[in-house]
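Chains adopt folds. We examine one example:
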Amino acid sequence: MTTHDTPRPGPEHWTELLHVRLERIEGLLAPADQATESERPAWQRRTRGEQRWAVMAALLVAVSVQWALPERLSIHPHWLLPVLELVMMAALWVAHPHRRIDYSSRPLRALGLLLAAAVSLANGWSAVILVRDLLHGTEGSNAVALLTAGGGIWLTNVIAFSLWYWEWDRGGPVARSLGTHQHPDFLFPQMQQEGIAPEDWEPQYMDYLYVALTNATAFSPTDTMPLSRWAKLLMSTQSTISLLTLALIVARAVGVLQ
């Protein structure tokens, strides 16, 4: 068979080739924010709501620590804020009794923020009273009791700020699952590079708890960077509180032991 006997491409071939080239050109001209849903990372598209067990466990730890603090370090009556926090947790569960946080309304959103505020208020009060008494010399005669109370306040401070990070980053857990906010307030390493995390990775409460813990120990961001102004301000506030609390408690404990 000679080369003249080779069948020539028909009109269907040229039509298909033209369609392929047009699609490639459209893909190059289309802006990045018009990528298909499947091409976006999980943290930018609509996904299932995260499970609530982690945040509920952290809240129960915070309530338990507040209940165990000496009465002189608590808002009176001693049981008021811990009970109020438990009531708000129960109300959130009754309003949306599901394992995953995938529904929100203005009342539920307001109740969640009030719960975070109650934890912060109770712990802030305890921290202020402890620091005041340390400066006046009326607190810290027992080093073990001082370190126990100070450690409990420091731990609750970590939980309180993790709640704020979790509630505010890109509009909160429900808004993140809906993918309504494209610009993150916190830049996690998994958002910056492909291949270091599963394709379905997106930040959940434990990630924000880790951010709060490292910020409270290093007194600065570590692997996760704050991007928005409110995130920077909040992390700066937490670092300052942690630094002052630890410095005063450790200094007083060392003085008592000597």
About this structure: The beta strands are 186-187, 225-226.
